[in-house]
């Protein structure tokens, strides 16, 4: 195929939304419409039939991810209107062979998905020998969240496969362009199109990019830089959603209202408003760190005030979280510095030096270790375990993108209940 094919992956649960989004994507230049696996599991073959009827001039791809009963499932998708059916590349050879035979019988093509295949180069050669029509260099969403790349997988297949190669997994306009330059014939884009408020515009940007493929130099970012960049643009609610409603501290409020703090935790344990260790921790912290202070549950005496805030700001500290009280609130508000506390109190303790710095603490119901990531905004404060920070930051970004599309549909007149199909998805007892 001389002209790259843009396939939009409708990885949604709601068929009405999928049809609307597909229509917008086609207007932006999408060629093939993929009935994503979540949509097939939610709506069955009805989704394939409806999209076939709605888009008679476009190829319908049924992402069945077939692992068994290859002939039966290919027949089912073909009779429903699919022109291409996806099978798992690591299915047994007998399953692959039966799927291919069924595809020939019913006039559909077979795409083999390399997700989780340990030796993709060798398996691609075997799949071509078994008669599949396309190889999909696919890195799944959960693998993407920990940093695996579909472009890296594609690079391993360059020049090795004798059938056209598709590529899927977290692609945007820039990486889609690079994928075509690296040899992909079919570019599959899901979230970066279907989660956009302007789906037509997002599809158009990918279409333009793959029609003019180029490999742009990729700037290398450290893991910490990626984590901070992503946490800077998502909200604390986005982060708790990404963690399945975990990690949120209880009872904290933002002293300065609409401010935000993101950074690694420097932890402090103190007692009864003793402000020695909290102030000493300012000198321990580096630029961009967040001080997290446990005050032994006391809210009648403050281990933090305006002078400490001024000192922390000068040091480059990103913010302060206090399981306790803060004082000098009027001065702190003038600074617009991110301080989050459970209470305010005018009383200060004495600098006795009790407590410790950079030990594991419990702050507002959450365990915090030195180096854990803190995301704090007007909605609250969330702690992310340091070993999961990259993954959670990526997942939080996906949550944000999903909300952007839902917000657009609400703006157009739908209610949140309608968009989410709440009655359909209420838990059955």
TrEMBL record:
Pfam name, any one: RraA-like
Stated name of the protein: Orotidine 5'-phosphate decarboxylase / HUMPS family protein
Residues of the Orotidine 5'-phosphate decarboxylase domain: 5-206
Classification via Gene3D superfamilies: Aldolase class I, Ribonuclease E inhibitor RraA/RraA-like
E.C. code: 4.1.1.23
GO terms, molecular function: orotidine-5'-phosphate decarboxylase activity
Species of provenance: Methanoculleus palmolei
Keyword field: Carbohydrate metabolism, Lyase
Keyword Lyase: yes
């Amino acid at each position: 195929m001389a002209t790259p094919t843009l396939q939009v992956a409708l990885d949604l649960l709601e068929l009405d939304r999928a049809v609307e989004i597909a229509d917008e994507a086609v207007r932006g230049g999408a060629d093939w419409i993929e009935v994503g696996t979540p949509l097939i599991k939610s709506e069955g073959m009805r989704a394939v039939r409806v999209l076939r009827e709605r888009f008679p001039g476009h190829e319908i791809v049924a992402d069945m991810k077939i692992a068994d009963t290859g002939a039966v499932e290919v027949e089912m998708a073909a009779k429903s209107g699919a022109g291409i059916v996806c099978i798992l590349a690591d299915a047994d050879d007998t399953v692959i062979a039966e799927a291919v035979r069924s595809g020939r019988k019913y006039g559909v093509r077979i795409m083999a998905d390399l997700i989780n295949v340990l030796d993709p180069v060798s398996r691609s050669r075997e799949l071509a020998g078994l008669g599949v029509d396309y190889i999909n260099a696919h890195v799944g969403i959960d693998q993407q969240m920990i940093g695996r790349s579909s472009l890296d997988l594609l690079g391993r297949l360059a020049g090795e496969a004798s059938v056209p190669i598709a590529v899927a997994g977290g692609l945007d306009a820039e990486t889609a362009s690079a994928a075509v330059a690296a040899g992909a014939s079919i570019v599959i884009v899901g979230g970066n199109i279907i989660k956009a408020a302007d789906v037509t515009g997002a599809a158009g940007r990918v279409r333009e990019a793959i029609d003019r493929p180029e490999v742009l130099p990729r700037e290398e970012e450290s893991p910490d830089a990626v984590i901070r960049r992503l946490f800077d643009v998502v909200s604390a609610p986005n982060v708790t959603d990404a963690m399945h409603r975990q990690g949120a501290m209880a009872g904290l409020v933002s002293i300065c209202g609409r401010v935000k703090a993101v950074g690694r935790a420097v932890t402090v344990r103190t007692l009864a408003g003793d402000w020695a260790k909290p102030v000493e921790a300012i000198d321990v912290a580096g630029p961009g760190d967040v001080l997290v202070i446990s005050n032994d549950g006391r809210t009648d005496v403050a281990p933090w005030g305006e002078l400490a805030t001024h000192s922390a700001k000068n040091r480059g500290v990103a913010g302060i979280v206090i399981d306790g009280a803060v004082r000098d609130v009027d001065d702190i508000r003038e600074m617009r510095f991110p301080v989050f506390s459970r209470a305010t109190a005018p009383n200060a303790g004495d600098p006795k030096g009790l407590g410790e710095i950079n030990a594991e603490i419990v702050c507002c119901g959450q365990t915090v270790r030195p180096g854990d990531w803190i995301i704090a905004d007007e909605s609250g404060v969330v702690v992310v375990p340091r070993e999961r920070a990259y993954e959670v930051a990526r997942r939080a970004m996906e949550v944000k993108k999903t909300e952007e599309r839902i917000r657009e549909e609400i703006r157009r007149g739908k209610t949140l209940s309608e968009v989410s199909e709440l009655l359909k998805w209420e838990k059955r007892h």
